[in-house]
Amino acid sequence: MSVYQRPIKFSLGKVYVTTAAVEALIRNDEELMHLLKRHREGDYGAEMCYDDRVVNEESIKRGGRVLSNYTLKDKTVIWIITSAGWQETVAMVREEY
């Protein structure tokens, strides 16, 4: 049995996670690694509008900033932002931005 994996679109660099994001992930029994995998493979989250997806794709071509957002079971929204140049990625709850 083979499992299809999407290609990695960019590097995450160093990954940082806020305390509020860790608490939300634990509360919702969600794995950060799963969200990071989706982010770097170009799955930016169901709530991401078409225009923002296009901006992300263009940004990847130029080595720019990439933003994803994922809604957890309790409706908390986790934002994952990889900086321009892909040196670092931060996971935070939306209200921390």
Mean pLDDT: 95
Tally the helices.
3
Number of domains: 1
> Shape from CA axes?
globular
The helical percent reads 25-40%
Please indicate the percent range of residues in DSSP E strands (runs of 2 or more): 15-25%
Q: List unreliable stretches of 5+ residues.
A: none
Describe the protein's architecture and organization:
Strand 3 (77-82) and strand 4 (88-93) form a beta hairpin. With 97 residues, the chain is of the alpha+beta class. The radius of gyration is 13 Å and the shape is globular. The mean pLDDT is 95. A 4-stranded mixed beta sheet has the order 1-4-3-2. The protein has helices at 19-27, 32-40, 50-62, and strands spanning 14-17, 66-71, 77-82, 88-93. It is built from 3 helices and 4 strands, in the order E-H-H-H-E-E-E. It has one domain.
Keywords:
97 residues; alpha+beta; four-stranded mixed β-sheet; 3 helices
Tell me the layout of helices and strands:
Blueprint: E1 14-17, H1 19-27, H2 32-40, H3 50-62, E2 66-71, E3 77-82, E4 88-93
Task: Please give a quick description of this structure.
This protein has 97 residues and is an alpha+beta fold.
